[in-house]
Amino acid sequence: MKTSFENEFNWRNYFIVSENIIRQKESSEIEFKESFHSPKHKDKKLHKWIASFANSNGGLIIYGVRNNGELCGLKDDRFKDFDTKDLSSELIEYFAPEIKFEIFIKNIEGFDLGFLYIYKSVERPVVAIKTANNNIQESDIFYRYPGQSKTIAYGDLRSIIEERSNSLNERWMSLISSIATIGVENVGLLNIDNGELLGSNNKLLIPEELLDKIKFINEGHFVENEGAPALKLIGDVLPVDSTKIIQLIEKKYQIITHFELYQSFFNQDLDKDSAKDFFRKVMYENTVYYPIYYYLSLCEFSDFELNNVLKKEKGHKILDLQKRFDEEKNNVSKFVSGNLQSESDAATHISEFLKKLKASETLNIRDMELADLRYVNQAITHLENTDLDVKYILRILKELYDYHFTSSSTTKSFIRKAICHIDLMIYGKRFYG
Asked: What is the pLDDT of residues 172-195, one digit of tens each?
């Protein structure tokens, strides 16, 4: 079945073609490109264009058209044979929230043209979550202006923020209006922590066998009061057995960057579904040295399921991740750094910090000198399971990350090793014994 925009698309509503030339210049909604390049191209300009359209009003990138509007058509099958999953994976890797798009080919005046339609994001702004050369920097917000895509201007960003605020206000007003119509005495608020309906003397019980008879609708959609009864809920609904209160699950992390990948480990606050998303995200990062065993312990993958995930994902770090598994399966001491048996000053300092860590002593991580930072990170890699005060060591790791992770590439490497070692000690041995 054709996708909605392609099905409704009539090119004559967008431009006029005369003598094989589109009689319209590039605009805030249309971009011409003579040829198509893979989204995996290292310059990532395509990603920037797409994000800019998503942040404005959506738009079209038309392939097979020269800059002056002259139709030349697609010269090869690269656009036709292109797998949209590749572009989806790339966009998810570099931007959040997710960008919706469609790709199709149409013959116009005897020329096959490729169309990439980008929808206006419903959760603007779309923000870069990863750096790519000089074209995309982490935290960039791109916006489409007439004939060009560039970093958003203050006025346009303010308009987006105001639009979101107004939309939220309208939803609140709509909800309040509905309550007034129904009557306060007939309305209950569901407490998702304990299942109680505030304003009601009863708890909401939904037996699994009745779920087929109940129509759940998304918040923000209007449904006629006919047929099956409808419940209006915010969040995800899961079936439960007859003896349990309905459970609503809302993901804690809406965006996953390297910050969330580490912080979730320090805070130990992931749920099973989020852990799966976090594990998959590692396959698209610049490094695989994240607390992957923490994610996997929550995912509860069987060996078959884990291998299946690794086969299906298209992230560029899958081979590196598999290599990590192989290395650590044979060497759970992989991240140990520093020789404590030598008589060097470094060994002495590392041993001193190791004693303090085992005793859960208070350390002034924030003001620690660079040399001591190295020693304390190395000391952490010598901790064994029997030495671990988990709550204490996770707090130490969090402080190391928060205060010093970006200070230098060397310090960053030591902190990563310390984090991965503790992850391996706590969760990895469940996999490797």
From this structure: 888 888 778 877 777 776 544 444
